[in-house]
Amino acid sequence: MLLLAIESSTGQVGCAVGGHEGVLASAHTSRGRRHAECLAPQIEFVCRQAQVELTDLGAVAVDVGPGLFTGLRVGIATAKALAQALAIPVIAIPSLDLLAFPARFSHRLIAAVIDARRGEIFYAFYRHVPGGVQRVSEPTLGSPDDLGSELLAAREEVLLVGDGALRYQGALPESSRIEVVEQGLANPSARTLALLAHARALREEWVQPWDVNPMYLRKPDAAIGWATRDGAAG
Amino acid sequence: MPVITARTTGPDETRALGAALADLVRPGDVVVLAGDLGAGKTTFTQGLGAALGVAERITSPTFTIAQEHRGRVRLHHLDVYRLENLREATDVGLDEMLDDEAVVVIEWGDRILPVLPTDLLEMRFRFVDGGDDDRAVDVRPVGFHWIARSAALERALARWCEAA
Ligand SMILES: Nc1ncnc2c1ncn2[C@@H]1O[C@H](COP(=O)(O)OP(=O)(O)O)[C@@H](O)[C@H]1O
Ligand SMILES: [Mg+2]
Predict the structure, then answer these.
(1) With contacts defined as CB-CB under 8 Å, which chain A residues touch B98?
(2) Which residues of B touch A222 (CB under 8 A)?
(3) Are B75 and B1 a contacting pair, CB within 8 Å?
(4) What is the mean pLDDT of residues B102-116?
(5) Chain segment A118-127, per-residue pLDDT in tens
(6) Which domains does chain A have, with CATH numbers?
(7) What is the CATH number that goes with domain B4-161?
(8) A226/B contact by beta carbon, under 8 A
(9) Is a pLDDT exceeding 60 seen at residue B163?
(10) Predicted model pTM
(11) Rounded to the nearest whole angstrom, what is the distance from the C-alpha of residue B42 to the centroid of ligand 2?
(12) Which residue of A86, A182, A189, B149 lies most exposed, with the fewest beta carbons within 10 A?
């Protein structure tokens, strides 16, 4: 089965076309955070390069976060619209799973860390399993200090990947057991998404487009005081 | 920090006031615009944006909540009047805009202070007795980074402040 993978949870936006032969074509842009402007031309480009028509697709895969709200909105809306128009299902995969997967050859504990902006990060821990990684903690929204405490408490070697780990490297505990991957694994990749989604498609682990929602990890909410607005006539 | 009160007698003057602030704002700055509907918040932003090099016409983002403009620095222009909860501000990507090396101008921003940085410039637009086109603007620097710029702020706004 052919599928289109759409990934937009960080400062990068990308897409890929893949199938049983693996990834056929992909494109990623990480400059300028222009997710909305970049995504449609990217989809057209990868389909043309892979010689795949949209009508050949059997599913759409999408990164559902956690991540940046502006990016996720573009990617998820595009994935849902395409799936609905083509009457095909969606495969939804969390961003942190995509980030951890390329580190699967390490037998260290893996921490996938995405920059949530303004001093916060999304993170989760993973362990190597045959053929991939398995998440061993709940995705969390916290500070680099929160992550630092967990790293120290882990009392084992940890490999960190992601733009959040890179940005806050200096705020993490200094320890020979803790290593941040400097190159190549800063953002989730649409290529990884295409690979992981294909395996799920074979098991028919998909959902209908209208059931796809971004995975938001958020702070407690409060109502905005609008005495003026609601008191005003009109 | 005492409030600086500026007075304008028409929309073009309020735009010029916005333009005067363009030399002062830096990427990462937050300007909160308070005041009733029609007080001049969007008009002010038009002047600020144009002086920051934004080419297109700036309109009220009431329905879209947030609008990004590109000038010599980028400008995120928000109007949170339609929001009911603080979480909705997060959901439009507020944290990303605040951590984006852009100038962030928020109409009705005084209502979402709990989710804003502690450093910001507050401008409160008021209707005043006199002509329909007269407005007063109370300008208040909040937090270290803005208070440090108070003197420059006073100089930039001197044209619109009455002599004591
Ligand atoms: N001195 C003034 N400053 C700003 N706007 C003025 C002034 N005098 C009249 N106006 C008019 O008042 C209205 C202000 O509207 P707007 O800037 O959209 O307000 P807000 O964004 O605060 O709701 C405009 O129609 C503008 O032409
Ligand atoms: Mg307005």
Answers:
(1) 117-118
(2) 85-86, 114
(3) no
(4) 96
(5) 999 999 999 9
(6) 3-94+188-221 (3.30.420.40), 96-185 (3.30.420.40)
(7) 3.40.50.300
(8) yes
(9) no
(10) 0.89
(11) 4
(12) A182
Protein residues whose CB sits closer than 6 Å to any atom of ligand 1: B 8-11, 13-14, 35, 37-43, 60, 107, 125, 133, 135
- What average pLDDT does chain A have? 94
Q: Give pLDDT, residue B1.
A: 60
Q: What b/e readout covers A108-147, taking b as 16+ CB neighbours within 10 angstroms?
A: bbbbbbbbbbeebbbbbbbebeeeebebeeebbbbebeeb
Nearest chain A alpha carbon to B28: A118
pLDDT at A233 (0 to 100)? 46
Is A118 in contact with B90 (Cβ distance < 8 A)? no
CA distances from B9 to B21, B22, B38, B121, B122 (A): 18, 20, 14, 22, 20
The structure tokens 């997060």 sit at B90
The position carrying tokens 């008009």 is B43
For A131, what's the count of Cα atoms within 13 Å in the CB-facing half-sphere? 3
- Answer yes or no: are the C-beta atoms of B120 and B146 closer than 8 Å: yes
Categorize the per-residue pLDDT at B164 as very low, low, confident or very high, splitting at 50, 70 and 90: very low
Longest dimension (CA), chain B: 45
Kindly report, residue by residue over A25-68, the tens digit of the pLDDT: 999 999 877 888 999 999 999 999 999 999 999 999 999 999 99
For tokens 């073009």, the residue is: B12
pLDDT exceeds cutoff 70 at A152: yes
Where exactly are the structural domains of chain B? 4-161
Give A-chain residues touching B112 at CB under 8 angstroms: 224
Distance set, CA A209 to CA A52, A59, A62 (Å): 21, 10, 10
Mean pLDDT, residues B116-127 taken together = 97
Residue type at B57 in one-letter notation:
R
The pLDDT-based confidence of A166 (bands split at 50, 70, 90) is very high
Q: What are phi and psi of B129, to 5 degrees?
A: -60, 140
Q: How confident is the model at residue A181 (pLDDT cuts 50, 70, 90)?
A: very high
Q: Which residue of A has its CA nearest to B34?
A: A228
Which of A74, A218, A163 has the alpha carbon at shortest distance from B94? A218
